[in-house]
Specification:
four-stranded mixed β-sheet; two-stranded antiparallel ribbon; 206 residues; alpha+beta
Amino acid sequence: MRCRSLTRLCADLVLAVGTGLGVGLLTHPYSGSDFQVLPLEGGHVLLNTVGVDHEFHAEEQDLLQFAGRELYGGKFSIEYEDLVSGRGVLLLYNWIAKRHPEAPALTETGQGTDASHSLALLRGLTQCRGGTRVVAKNACSDPPCPYAAKALLLHYEYLMRCAQNLSIGLNAKGIFLAGDNQVANRNFVFKYACQRERHARSSMPC
């Protein structure tokens, strides 16, 4: 019995954040440029949590309980797309605003001046196409709104956690982040990525 020889393929993971989380694999031979795209539904992978002794565990559980009740009435688990998407950024801000009543209200024109806000207003903005843009604008402003900055940072941290899990499971050799929001928010991402890298290095034993 003769076995057919198989061409060795290399795969790169592609993630594109928009109204949802688009995921795909860009495959090509190790030698050659015959690229093919394999669309996936990776955004619907269930979100994995940090360990019980992690410093963020209690806060993350509170976030996931809030998100689960808001989206599914507390009956279903949270997927990555629930937080890594345009609506996810607004949900993250809603959660932060619930924990911090002093957080400014969001408006179509930007950060509100009145520290008091209505959670119903924030929920209304979840359905507004400009709501996510307002959070990103406030997070990237100088000085940044700390509540908007935390919402956007969590959004990107969950994006990278998703990328890490999928790239390992799918044996991807590289990761591409696609979408104009990646370009628009690049300075924000680089700023906090460098801070996290310096913190990780300072925590390493000599």
